[in-house]
Amino acid sequence: MKKRVLICAGTGCVSSGSMKVTDSLISRVKEKGLEDSLQVVATGCHGFCEQGPIVIVEPEDIFYCRVQEKDLDEIVEKTLIGGEVVDRLLFEDPIRKEKAKTFHEVDFYSKQQRLVLRNCGHINPENIDEYLNKDGYAALGKVLGGMDREAVIEEVKKSGLRGRGGAGFPTGLKWEFTYKAESEKKYVVCNADEGDPGAFMDRSVLEGDPHAVIEGMLICGYAIGADEGYVYVRAEYPLAIKRLKVAIQQAEERGYLGQNILGSGFNFKLKIKAGAGAFVCGEETALLTSIEGNRGMPRVRPPFPAVKGLWGKPTNINNVETFANVPVIFRNGAEWYAGIGTEKSKGTKVFAVTGKVNNTGLAEVPMGITLRKIIFDIAGGIKGGKEFKAVQIGGPSGGCLPAELLDLPVDYDSLTQAGAMMGSGGLVVMDSSTCMVDLARFFLNFTQKESCGKCTPCREGTKRMLEILIRITEGKGKEEDIEILKRLGTNVKKTALCGLGQTAPNPILSTLRYFEHEYLVHIRDKKCPAGVCKELIRYRINQDLCNGCTVCAKNCPAGAISGSLKQPHTIEQDKCTRCGVCITKCKRGAVYLA
Amino acid sequence: MCQCCAQEAMADPKKEKLDEVLAKYKGQKGAMIPVLQEAQEIYGYLPEEVMVEIGKSLEIPVSKVYGVATFYAQFHLKPRGRNIVRVCLGTACHVRGGAKILEKIEEALKIKDGETTEDLKFTIESVACIGACGLAPVIMVNDNTHGRLTPDVVSKILAQYQ
């Protein structure tokens, strides 16, 4: 069997230098005359970006991480020619301190169940043949080869698939509504406007396995009776747009897109629309307004897009991950798929686990798994052995959950009950150094900026809530602010026009629900326990520990530190800007927060 | 039009490119945003006269063109630097100290977020998330992503683009 060297060419690994590694390896392989026995493949994202650039050697599945150009000679000599493993490039488990030889031994991967991400990192996304070799377009063949449209919709309904973009609406039902809407022209739209900060699974799927999304959209188009589709990709993802363009072109050349697809008489054309930077466009009606070339503001629903969507025609919108699930369902059968997950949340969900964990990256797990398993078993626990404080789930629309809820099963309904939301699946893990009031302020600052201004509750409500939060973080909070925040938040939730406004108060309401004491400490004691809110912290120097090395004084941009050489230094509080440089520069740990 | 103006118009390669773009999208539905994107690609920003031209060609009132251009974060009505430094302040970067990276960049370039240096070399833009959360904190200079940053490596990265 021909050896294959897979090098990740996703956004994360590219920024860590994987392109250089790839080019350089290709030229070394040529030099050594190994081209016939060895193939170098640039793949999509492996979802373990922090360890990039990632290199996998097949068929042994040897897993090397953080590979740089200087490591290549050793890899070529030892592994590719000699068949040995280069020990120092292997991944070391952050807890067990054991080296993993193959990626199957890496907990981060072995404890996942990868359906949507199955091909990501294992095929060259710019070569349709590699997708075809992995049963690509087989589901489409099955659908077009004799299933009628009702049967296709029935199959999706039976699978129990729910929208992966946030709200979790049953996908089969959505398709049925659009199917039943009478019109000569219908559209399929893929929402790839992944705007939630902290989520990047859609980017990875588009970069790593674009054909899976195209195949899902084709099946949808056939089922609902649409002959045209759009993928709305956010402008911040240039690589995803490029890969998708290549994929569409190759699918057209092979007859998977265009006229009379696979001889079935079904026609479908697919276009890409690049977003222009507006978070609200992730909301489906705003997205449609944006494709039409207008300011991306949401419309009142009903009528829902299934009845009156793009250019007034019935339109089915699903997000990237939802579409990528569709071929899996048709290849393995709806019953098989429905066997994964919980009673009401079927299948898997991809989470982007980031923040203060050892292994940041994409984790695809069956629905219903606990937060603890994701954070501790897959993501390797908290960095630096610190204590877990909270996890923010679902981005700006989601909420913060405390340690008491670590055993909560992760499914749509449990999360909503706990005051959070599946959202797009961002999981930002926080330790004691994150201030919950500051975090709520951070999210409100985001939603307030991104509010399109069309409806009053969102436009005014987010602004007022943000003002109160800023006041609290500056030590000017009042006791009654907590009640005002609760009332305002609840009202905005009930009255805002679209999903952005309806969920914007979630970060505040959930932190108030689980971390109200932290708000109170800010308001009553004028202190920030996490040491984040600048107005409420003081840096001081421990006079016993300071040996007067003067490093802090030299680095202080405000000139606020005084003291003579070899004598303990002091910080003048009036001059101090609380930038924290001194605490990072002091080698003796003499600077502390008070 | 007098001869000299006509010649001047002919000699402007940017205008020629813009005309090509406008011809390509003529009569297409939903063309406004792609046209604005390509126009900005040509000019580096969206000058007023370009928006007027786009409105004429697409038969859309200039007020609407302006409305769209000012709605989206991607469009700019003022000239920008040759290098765009996008500093991610998304959740993952926020938790890992993205704000300190921004401070450092502002200090190094002596401009604030959203501003352009006088020599038109750099523009700083804070963004909500560039989807490279695994490498937080990150910045993107033009199309290159730089990750796992600490405040002290910032000036070294900027120096590559001087």
- Can you tell me the overall shape of chain B? elongated
Strand order of the largest sheet of chain A: 12-11-15-13-14
Average of pLDDT of chain B: 89
Count of DSSP H/I helices of chain A: 23
> Most extensive interface: pair and counts?
A-B, 57 and 44 residues
Could you say which overall geometry of chain A the principal axes of the C-alpha atoms support? globular
Share of residues in helices of chain B: 40-55%
Task: Give the strand content of chain A.
Answer: 5-15%
| Helical percentage of chain A | 25-40%
Strand-residue proportion of chain B: 5-15%
How are the strands of the biggest sheet of chain B laid out side by side? 2-1-3-4
What does the radius of gyration of chain B come to? Answer: 19 Å
Q: Would you report the number of β strands of chain A?
A: 19
Structural class of chain B: alpha+beta
Helical stretch count of chain B? 8
Please mark out the parts of chain A with pLDDT under 50 across 5 or more consecutive residues, or reply none: none
Biggest pleated-sheet summary of chain B = 4 strands, mixed
Specify the biggest β-sheet of chain A: 5 strands, mixed
Note down, in words, how this protein is organized:
The complex is a heterodimer of chains A (594) and B (162). Chain A is α/β, with parallel strands linked by helices and 594 residues long. Chain A is built from 23 helices and 19 strands. In chain A, the strands form six sheets. A five-stranded mixed sheet of chain A has the order 12-11-15-13-14. A four-stranded mixed sheet of chain A has the order 2-1-3-4, with helices on one face. In chain A, helix 9 (201-208) packs across helix 10 (210-224), helix 17 (436-450) crosses helix 21 and helix 18 packs antiparallel against helix 19 (481-495). The radius of gyration of chain A is 26 Å and the shape is globular. The mean pLDDT of chain A is 94. Helices cover 48% and strands 11% of the residues of chain B. Chain B is built from eight helices and four strands, in the order H-H-H-H-H-E-H-H-E-E-E-H. Chain B has helices spanning 3-11, 13-25, 32-43, 48-58, 62-71, 91-95, 98-109, 154-159; strands at 83-88, 122-127, 139-141, 144-146. The longest helix of chain B has 13 residues, at 13-25. In chain B, 37% of the residues are buried. Chains A and B meet through helix 1, strand 11, strand 15 and helix 17 of A and helix 3, helix 5, helix 6, helix 7 and strand 4 of B.
